Here is the input.
Amino acid sequence: MTLSPIDEHEHNFDNEAAIDQPTVSSPSVPTINSLASRPKPSREERLELERERLVASLSSGNTDHLTERIAWLLSRFPETRDSDITLQLRYWAIFEPELYAELEVDPQAMYRLTRLTSITRARAKIQNSFRLFQASHEIRQRRGRLSEEARDRNAVSTPPSPVLTVYADESGKTGSHLIVGSVWFLDPRDTLTLWNRIQTWRRETKFEEEFHFSELSNRTAPYYHAFVDLVLAGSPLISFKSISVSRTGVRHADIALEQLFFELLKQGVAHEHDTGRAELPRRLLMIKDREEEGSDRILLSRLAERLTHASSLHFEDRLKVRSLESVDSRSQPLLQLADLYTSSLNRTFARSASNPTNPKDVFADFFLDRIAALAGATTDAVLSGEADGDLHIHLRL
Here is the structure.
């Protein structure tokens, strides 16, 4: 087919707020010490460095990546600076000539050609962030007016708040205490990083079994200990929070557990805010180990309603409940971590004394002592409420 003439003025729209991320090769992983000693560059410094790299790529004729190709076109065809449609057509004709030629006979080729949105983002970054190959004065004025209108529309909008991610589990329905334990991540990217490290460790150790306290044995104990060490060594913004109540006088365990979940999340958010580790506003994502689908749905629905009300009452509406979910812990190592933590607490509350020959007792002592030590306390001090640190807190009702 042949392309019909297009009134380009109708298609000159502003995408200046959208900026793509440059494609870079994966560098070697720096050490923690090197990261700590390296000052974080400012946004202006990062942009200047990217600008210098782009100019160097143009000078060398490198057009391997989208941004470099768009810069090459803008530098050589001034008419592409005023119209994204012209830029798109020129991009296809030069860098994807085979697919572009197919447009004459195959409209489906449009789906394989580089999208206008991608081309527009690259153009906007080069012109607006790098200040290179500017559009004509008339077009810049027009885009400026559109940009101001967009900013006015978005002035009342609030950018998304950071996410608090919580993995939780419950224990003690047949024990002396009802317990809810949880693992908190202040940066959701840490959950992906830790998950990848766990998968690498599994491949290296060839240990593919799931981590469940009930299945811990003398054979698997070394892997459980190594798993805890792996988590604590590479997760600086992790914390462990738990809450418990004596079963004495509790007639309805499900009602009590709902209250424990609510108090743990409400007081946990307050703790993170008050200590400055994760100040509000925040969005809350909680993932709990699945018990029974029906009861979990009721529990999570009631929790969402109560937490929304608590946000209004205690946090000036600065806590938003993003999602509360129940998930099967199979293939979920971070939920399995919450299981190990919660079950270790249950083991400690249920026993009269630790048995040094029992692998479950040994592991519970090891796990709780490790996180208590990192919090600068002892397990007894944490569980009694005498110690309150950033890494490990225990609440009692």
Q: What stands out?
A: The first strand starts at residue 163 and ends at 171.
